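Structure ticket #2291
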Amino acid sequence: MPRFTAAHALTQARQHPLIPVFYHAQEEYARRVLAACHAAGVRLFEFTNRGPQAPEIFERLQRFVEADFPDLLLGAGTIFTAEEAGRFIEAGADFIIQPVTSPDVAAVCRSYDLAWLPGAQTLNEVYEAHRLGATLVKLFPSAYLTPEYLGILRGPLPQVPLMVTGGIQPTIESLTEWQAAGATCVGLDARLLDTDEPARLTAQVRELLAVLRPTM
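Resolution: structure written out below.
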């Protein structure tokens, strides 16, 4: 059974509204990034399904998280099919993130009361994802849709929890603008962060988290 419910994941996303989005084929490097982000206050971390060894690396990272950082939710991203979702859930995924909206993946996540974050762009897509039970709807790729677009979307859908991600720059100005436009939380590509030195990464992420107010 999953460690955390969908409701708990949403609460954590609201209270700690920055989610690193990361993949690396070297497990030890990934561990260092995870540890540095947790030290900064991150409580949701997305490891993307972008390489042939991603499921195996994810499973070992999940054991590492459970042993050393039990309050951190480690989710699997870039999931397209119910089969992929099931494989990562069996490996211990605390949430599932998609670049698209797949009703069969939604059904798998619902069966475990596991947080499901599907990707959407248009008003119709966001509404449909919410109707299917999305914990958070992932507005993707947000950088090309702009904060102004998010603000317009918020008009008819003020209560839908929205995660913005995809090309967002890791700057105080950018994050402030996105949250002011109505973002519940922000996903940042960890390749844009200073991941070469753990202490600098912790300082950078802590500074960015400090400008994001918890959302309710």
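Closing remark: The first helix runs from residue 6 to 15.
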